[in-house]
Amino acid sequence: MAGSTRKGALHRLTTREVFTATDGDHTDGGGLMLRVRLDRKGAKGHDIAGQVSWVFRFSAPTGERREMGLGVCERHNLQASGASLAAARLAAAKARAMLAEMPPRDPIAERACARAAALEAIRVGAAERAQTDATLARIARQYHARVIEPVKSAKHGAQWISSLERLLPRAIWQAPIASITAPVLLDAMIDLYRRVPETASRIRQRLDVIFADAQFHGVCLTNPAAAIKPKLREAGGRHALESHRALPYAQAPAFVTALRAQPGIAAQALEFGLLTAARTGEIIGATWSEIDTDAAVWTVPAARMKGGEEHRVHLSARALAILERMREIGGGFVFPNPRDLQKSQSNMGMLALIKRMKYQDRTTAHGVCRATFSTWANELGIARPDVIEACLAHREGDRIRAAYNRAKFGAERRALLDAWSAFVTGMGSSNVVPIRSVA
């Protein structure tokens, strides 16, 4: 059988013979040889370093004669020579055992497979460590530094990442991004929507782009933030929760009356937002350069709009009166921070105001400014749905249609917001005559 030897043919070399062996091949039997190549001069007189190593010769299962190196023979003394001989005999015995199996195995091929498996184990281990290190927190901060900070204002950039750091559960924020599943994220987001619905909506959108970017770069396989979007509605999250926190439109006039009795800039900002059906971020970020009091128009630039498109808002007489009062205060922002007029109002100011008015269980700033307006206009048929959506700056999927609508609905949007102002200020009634265009 290939690689087999007759009894007594093994272990021919002694320790001293290994220690004193001269140039040449010295057999130990069973295919094991000590190969000695002493230092000598090459053809051009160059020194050639000597080498003493163990070699195993055998017939492969294919019948091919092969040699397998078993390593360097250490023989700087008798003890080292004996240890090297014993190790070489053990390695040769293992190789003979492979050749004796049915079917026989090639020891060189087996060693190559073992090395490849070891390298693969190292690669897999490194990949697993990289995945473990790729926490949601780390990937989110990298995305923030690469994508958000270069294009957003310092304030918006800081709010973008801090909302995630403050409000996401630590078990999710510090987890490897590839390990976060949609059901786990859904539970956390439902809790956020119940506590801070406006901020929760922003957080889900931010997680969506983070996961999508990580998925694109192969850091994770799925985007759970996108997967939970429809599930939030089913589970009573997102729109359902936000609608629950929106003030019924019949209560809006009483709310505005109570709001006008509140002191401070936050009260002015919230009423202005209610009159314009604007988002919180659009309100607190408004600057005087966006306001044209002569034309009674507030133009919110595309960079500050959720849909990325410029939005023109009609200003009713009451909205203009608020602006006149705020201009007397001064500052770069329309609704500045009372502690520093060069900074904008914080959205927490509106939340604190609603809590102070004891409306925190009945509405949010987003709810009373936008959802209440939308419900009023739609349920009473005050204007066509397209006009209402245009006032809310909901992005139109068809860009040509969107441009057409912006041009066509100008007068209707103005009339709609005037009617809304009249209603909430007590100058109108719940039975408003519809202003829908007959054209």
Count of discrete domains? 3
According to CATH, the homologous superfamily of the largest domain is Intergrase catalytic core
Q: Which segments are poorly predicted (pLDDT under 50) over 5 or more consecutive residues? A: 1-8, 42-49, 237-244, 397-405, 429-439
What is the radius of gyration computed over CA atoms, rounded to a whole number of angstroms? 39 Å
User: What class would the helix/strand composition place it in?
Assistant: alpha+beta
The CATH topology label of the largest domain is: hpI Integrase, Chain A
Strand content: 5-15%
Helix content: 40-55%
Q: Class of the largest domain in CATH?
A: Mainly Alpha
Order of helices and strands: HEEEEEEHHHHHHHHHHHHEEEHEEHHHHH
**Average predicted local confidence, pLDDT:** 83
Q: If strands are numbered along the chain, what order do they take across the biggest sheet?
A: 1-2-5-6
Distance between the termini: 99 Å
Tell me the total number of β-strands. 11
Could you say which overall geometry the principal axes of the C-alpha atoms support?
rod-shaped
Q: What is the tally of helical segments?
A: 19
Largest sheet: 4 strands, antiparallel
The CATH architecture category of the largest domain equals Orthogonal Bundle
